[in-house]
What we know:
- By secondary structure, the protein is an alpha/beta fold.
- The protein has 2 domains: about 20-30 and about 45-165 and about 315-365, Rossmann fold, CATH 3.40.50; about 170-305 and about 405-420, 3-Layer(aba) Sandwich (Rossmann fold), CATH 3.40.50.2300.
- It has 11 helices and 14 strands.
- The strands form 3 sheets. The chain has a 7-stranded mixed β-sheet with strand order 9-8-10-11-12-13-14, sandwiched between helices. A 5-stranded parallel β-sheet has the order 4-3-5-6-7, sandwiched between helices.
- α1 (about 60-80) packs across α10, α4 crosses α5 (about 200-220) and α10 crosses α11 (about 360-365).
- The longest helix is centred in the first third of the chain and has 20 residues, at about 60-80.
- The radius of gyration is 22 Å and the shape is globular.
- The relative contact order is 0.16.
Amino acid sequence: MQGFGRRMLGGLAGAALGAFGPFGRARAQAPAATPAPAPAGAPSAPPVRLGALFPLSGPSALFGDECYRGLELAVEDRNAGGGVFGRPIALVRADAPDEAAATEEARRLVQGPERVAAIFGSFSTTIALPASQVAELANVPFFELCALGDPVVERGFRWVFRAAPQATDFAATALQGVSILAAAMDRPDTALRLAIAQEDALGAQSIGAAQEALMQARGLTLIQRASYAPRPTDLAGLVQRLRGLDAEVVLHVGAPGDEVLLFRAMRDANWQPRMVIGTAGGYGLGETARSIGADFAGTMSADFTPFAVNERIAPGARAFAELYLRRYGAEPRSGHGLACFTGARLFLDALHRAGSAERDRIRAALMATDIPEGLTACGWGARFDERGQNLRARPVLCQWQPTLATPGGQAGLRQVAIAPAEAAIAAAQTRLGP
């Protein structure tokens, strides 16, 4: 898998660069038609209504709200600059805590009185799949910001687009952690005993399958791909199975909260592998680190770009965190907000260049998008293939590492980038625990 890389802009002498303000910049695309200013006293242009479909209640509500905030900040930023093709943007919220609600709310957005021009979503593959199907059947563009499952863009749909990396990218990034561990142990990576622990759900299955395929291609030793039922109350049985197999590295893919159950079960069993490498979800959440405590130190994750990242490849990550703090009175809770902010800006820019909300023009503008990596706040670029997948979005290998105690305070953990090299701000720790 390619890492981040700031591609050279040679040959573009005289080409304009479109500013993304303090959040990075993107190479300008084909110019959009600029609407003439409205005469003084003329009525303001009606807003362009865009759906915002996320799990705003239920077990994933924290993540849904974090995703919504990233989108909201992107829309506010765009409106401050004049909106899209001379019209302001109005978000229409839709709460989709599960598949049934995703279908119902997507129908409301495309068929109801508000009739949105496009839908943004959604955090979870299980939400993205039914909601995007409704949008596709209604010929309404669906912009996915952070659901990972490969099936989201593998159904031959014309109006579904994803800005974020896909499951295979996250799987490859997780295996970077295996290579780092093997080098530190002075062993070939083929000698490490690897286990995949996954929730039996669409998104986790997609990532687990991609990890297994990559392991087979590289000749790695997968001792078991173990599944467990969704929404478990504990993972004691899973941990006993992994312990009995003498797993050295556990690659875990589950719903938010499952990582807490995993570490609790490991503590109760008085056992831990050399390393746990998670994938996004709760592994990027500060509350997870606080809940688990010191045992979480060293945990790696294939994740969205963290805020502790080399800004030479992610210009504006820190500025986004500062904007978020001013807007919401608290620090970002995970990298999901930054991912959704970055993806939303890419889609809103294409919508503006389309010059209208006509779906064929939106698709044409998206397919013409050509932004090198390393120019946005996530470090992503943008180039969409025929499936609607952004090929220049990359996860980052992250790790929870101890922070120094502040006067009168206590040491904690923070998530930092450790790979690829150009994104890293810290060397990898090669064991779990403080």
